[in-house]
Write a structure and sequence with these properties.
52% helix; single chain; two-stranded antiparallel sheet; binds zinc ion; 15% strand; 2 helices
């Protein structure tokens, strides 16, 4: 009988600990965006341009500008529009 009681106590303890851990994980997830808002400045939306050759979108600051168009690489600027 005491063996059964022992296992019941063990199972209840495991359930209690797992519930506490789950609640902590939820709380941590809920805190994360708040912490982000408090910390780093909000990311500014970046202007995106499209490569005239392959059509890939990339930040305007990374684009190669040539012949009045935007390109993802000097190679595609050389190949020209498609
Ligand atoms: Zn390209």
């Amino acid at each position: 009988m005491s063996k059964v009681l022992f296992w019941v106590v063990i199972i209840l303890a495991v359930l209690l600990v797992s519930r506490l851990l789950a609640r902590q994980a939820v709380r941590r997830r809920a805190d994360a965006p708040r912490r982000q808002r408090r910390g780093a400045p909000p990311a500014r939306p970046q202007a995106m341009v499209q490569c005239a050759h392959c059509g890939v979108h990339l930040p305007a600051t990374d684009a190669v500008k040539s012949q009045g168009r935007n390109w993802c690489s000097p190679e595609h600027a050389r190949l020209g529009p498609r």
